[in-house]
Amino acid sequence: MSTSFKILVLSGFVFFSLESCNKNYVISDKQEILFQFDYINYTLGYVHYGYLIDNEGNILTYKNPEEWNFPDNNNNLSKEQLAQNMRKCNKTGEKIDNDELLKYTGYIKNIASSKVTSPKNVAEDTGSSEFICYQFSESSEMYKGYLIKMEGDFTCENLNFYSKKVASWMKEINNRITRN
């Protein structure tokens, strides 16, 4: 191999490596919501709270919202349903740093392509906490939710390597935010 050919190949490799570092990992430019933490418990009345993280890193909280749109059996929500949910949220004023948001958003495709363990009943009357990430389809204008982890009465988790990191990150966020 000639030296000039080696330099050309190495230059191409470096260029493509740098380009991949600059990618915007948001699944779609029109995707508004990336992650959701959702807790619900019917045992002592209705308790429902959580938060959404939007594509700008804003943390939006909700507590016992009326007429909340839950995903269908395939974990889908329409763009309009999600917009209605967002209008029922409160801005916390907290924002995820852009580099941190890109890091965790970069894991969504991997999590979306992985399997989830079967639910295992481990408790009673503790409710359910779900950690979810989303992908948005521009053609159908639907958000597809992917379970990262479920805790509470039943537990299950996504088998992807990154799911533990994302769930831990989302727990940290949940512990530091204030709900109105």
Fold and architecture overview:
With 180 residues, the chain is an alpha+beta fold. It is built from five helices and nine strands. Strands 1, 2, 3, 4, 5, 6, 7, 8 and 9 form a nine-stranded antiparallel beta sheet that branches. It is globular, with a radius of gyration of 19 Å. The N and C termini lie far apart (66 Å). The model is unreliable at 2-26 (pLDDT under 50).
Key phrases:
single chain, 180 residues, alpha+beta, 5 helices, disordered N terminus
SSE layout and pairing:
Elements: H1 3-21, E1 33-41, E2 47-54, E3 58-63, E4 76-78, H2 79-87, E5 90-95, H3 98-105, H4 108-112, E6 120-121, E7 128-137, E8 142-152, E9 154-157, H5 163-176
Antiparallel strand pairs: 1-2, 1-7, 2-3, 3-5, 4-8, 6-9, 7-8, 8-9
Which secondary-structure class do the elements indicate? alpha+beta
Helix content: 25-40%
Distance linking N and C termini: 66 Å
Low-confidence stretches: 2-26
E-strand count? 9
Taking the sheet with the most strands, its summary is: 9 strands, antiparallel
Number of domains: 1
H-E order: HEEEEHEHHEEEEH
Number of helices, counting only DSSP H or I runs of 4 residues or more = 5
Radius of gyration: 19 Å
Report the average pLDDT across residues: 86
What coarse outline follows from CA principal-axis ratios?
globular
Strand content: 25-35%
